Predict the 3D structure of the following.
Amino acid sequence: MANTSSARKRARQIPKRTLRNKAIKSRVKTAIKNFEDSLNKGDQEHSRLMLRDAVKMIDKASAKGILHKNTAARKKSYLMRKFNYQQQEKTG
């Protein structure tokens, strides 16, 4: 059990922050899944919109400290590679 008042306050804050972080991480995962689904369907314009939304969600999570900046960069790079590869397959 926490001994100091500041530690008690931190203990009260942890569940709220955990719920917020889980919700934002879940939104990021859903945005990525929606992008991948639209990419598999072959709709390029919809895929472009879903990619933009996913990147925006990842950037927001990174700005709030929920995702590390390198993790966010890696996720965005992965999505961009998938999108660009799909574009190359369609054109040639």
Remarks:
- The helical segments are 5-41, 44-63, 69-91.
- The chain is about 85% helix and 0% strand.
- The domain at 5-91 is CATH 1.20.58.110 (Methane Monooxygenase Hydroxylase; Chain G, domain 1).
- The mean pLDDT is 94.
